[in-house]
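The material for today's practical consists of a large collection of protein records. Read left to right, the backbone structure tokens trace the chain's path through space. An example says more than a description, so a record of this kind follows:
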Amino acid sequence: MNKIETKRLVLYPAAREQMEAMIAAERDDELKAAYAQMLDGCLRRPDLWSWYAMWMIERRDGTHVGDLCFKGLGADGVVEIGYGIREEHQGRGYATEAVEAAVLWALRDPRVSAVEAEAEESNLASIRVLEKCGFVPNGTLGEEGPRYTLKI
């Protein structure tokens, strides 16, 4: 299993049981559906588990601070990343640290040519994370807002 370690964090793709538990516990219908879609992708393509799974973001002491995901591995080499930090852990740079590490991991794969993300225009914190990690607006609009790209 893939695992990414940073100065303060450990990131790893969730196992099926962890994803099922997160789905069962989630109260937000939109997130519940997104998590279920991730699990479905994992089960349909177990050979690409890391590209569909929910990745856990934990501090080195084991405290769960958030999660991220890649939304599959596109045939064109473009992967999309999504991320979220629990409210009580926001404002500490965890999102930037996690996204930066995950993007570096993804770009090491020779099949990946670019990483994209979407951020609602009102989500200034998420936009700032993307900017700090080197993403730039690519002029297109996605379901969640403007799209940003980081190329090799």
